[in-house]
Amino acid sequence: MHSNLDEISTQLLNCDICVVGTGPAGLSIVSKLLKINKKIILLESGNLSDTGDHDFLNIGKSIGPRFLDVQSSRLRTFGGAGKLWAGVCRHFSLNDFERNNWPINYADFIPYYIDAYNLFGLNSNFNFEENSNEKYFLYQNLKELYKNDSFFNAKSFIQASEKNRDLTNKFGNEIINSKNINLITNATAVDIKINPFGNAEKLEVFSINKNKLYISAKKFVLCMGALENCRFLMNSRTRKYINANSFGKGLMSHPGFSNIGKLYLNPKCLSKKNNKKINKKLKYFNTELKQEFINKEKILGHGFSLKPVNIKNKLKNMQFNEIINNLNYVNVFENIKCNLQNEINIPKEWDVSIGIEQEFLENNYLKQSTSEKDIFNKPILEVFWDNISKKEIKTIQIANRYFARQVILSKLGVFELSEKLKNNSVFLEEDSINHHIGLTKMSKKGEEGVVDENLKLHNIQNVYVSGSCVFPSSSSVNPTLTVSALSLRLADHLINIV
Predict the structure, then answer these.
(1) Residue 157 and residue 350: Cα distance in Å, rounded?
(2) By residue range, what is the domain housing residue 68?
């Protein structure tokens, strides 16, 4: 069933499990709780639809040298960030887990990745199958990059449809009509009472009209997003139970840098047979150094994205003399040659961009404001995001060198760095990705992190946290699939113990 907090007359509700937040993390958990005979309360700070009434609660400040959008990159409505993200999915690798001390077993986690792919309506085996690469435009055009002991691996991504990426389209009506789940909207969690034995007893919740509700539960799960989860833990009575020095530190994304260079290919044709393999709907594909070279060079994960230059647009912007001097862009003779061979001419010029894993650094942090508070008298968040680090710059530089070498070894052509990369101005550009990762990382020991391998707060017996905030590392791929997989895993754990 569904209620708006302003319509609830009682001051206390009881349940078995209280889930705070209805984004991909919260709804992934609820997708499994729908099937059990337990009393569940699901809280959403916003309304059933995105009315904008609660957007002001996202207020915060970016106080570092690099800007981080803490307002428009978050959404308070039923479905949360599921209504914002692009649906791009890729699982983390075994090395992502092992190299960064994830306290969970990767092999045991794979089934949850498969469940998460399925949850978003995707072929669960697609990204695990090597021959899936053959269906991508980039692979068929540049497959020499990955052959004959190449330095590089191909990395495929798949995208959930606009309908499937928002889980309210899948479970929304079922949740609203459920007898065991009580969805309460216009309900912002503000504080939580903890008894002397380390158990959370009552969650304090407010509507934006300041109506108050207490919720008592056996288990509480915070799924409010990376920034808001951390802010809640800082502003509530849970703060004194968190001993880790890393708490509130290590904010990560995976910064992207566009047009760092150009790839110029030698004249080349693609067989029509291979062209027929290409699935035009598959848009996302990366090129990454093999792990042995990443380890050898002690750099971070990354991914090159390549996009053919639109020749028509390029010619439109040229003067007549430039066009005459650049007839190679027209590719007339190459097209004739390829057509005579019953093949297709491959684009000659490609823009090259790179996205990287961001390292865990304590100087990227979230803190409470000392001067501004929200309507519930809680400090707003302030985020310090530092300039790109030396290791992150080193990652791009070394990856570029390997890429340039591989292009020549593969006899494809040449790779030319852009001026903005040569003069380092590219590193001053604002990041457009806005994936908030880290701040309350998982660990085996309480002094090393905020939550344990089951996502429970180390020193509180019945409060769990799910979302990208618990990641010990960011990887170079999108976080939402892993958020969902972790949440599905947590749901099984809760079902077993409640």
Answers:
(1) 20
(2) 2-87+165-249+439-497
